[in-house]
Amino acid sequence: MSEIYLRLADGPADRLRPAGMALPGSSAVIRIPAALTESLRAAWHRLRCSWRYSAALQELRALDARTLKDVGLNRGDLEAIAYATARRGAFGRFGAVRIRRVEMADHPRCVQFGRLLHPEDVRLRFGRPAALGDGDTFRRLLGLDDRKIETIGAFDVSGRILGLATVAWVGPGTAEIALIVRSDLQRRGLGATLLAHVVKSARSAGFRLLVANIDDGNLPIRRLAQRFGFELSANSATSTLAQLAVGS
Prior knowledge:
The protein has 248 residues and is an alpha+beta fold. The chain has eight helices and nine strands. The chain folds into two domains: 3-40, no CATH class; 97-245, Aminopeptidase (3-Layer(aba) Sandwich). It is globular, with a radius of gyration of 24 Å.
């Protein structure tokens, strides 16, 4: 059994020294078995999960009924969802969906996701047609290699991308956001799940204002933005500016 040795200093003048180095006048030795260190790690893990559970449950209980419906949650399931969030990052109607940052290693999955998007959904997202099934085009438009843009994805248990959100730095304390959900999975709460994550992450990162340019034909996103508290104003003849204050 491996052990950790701690030598106790006899007086306040003594200082901690590397293991194995003699301390003048020291004789007491505390031996901490490896099993105890593993128990301490396990206790710390449980404490951290407990904190995550409490934080997730508090956040979920703060959601209004319409947002809960969009995300696909029932109030009776909130404790189970909070537990899953603390343990695995699971959230929403899909149960095992994981929300995380998209890396360059996910590029093949991104291309496959792009090939499953309806051309009209792509036009509403980017304001023009785009061939997202092409790797270079996808990387450029979603900013996968742009340090000012963070792309966040919703992944299923097999690693397939279900939806994407982008957060682009546009000025001090301000970020522009946008999202797109796989065409065959829309109206199931994935957009709300992504947006909730983006808002929370942006607030934690210190952003004070989130903005989005929404095509006037994209009514589901307009309604979703309004339910999350975004203020809408005319931006052009064909688009609406949505703004949400997320910091003090």
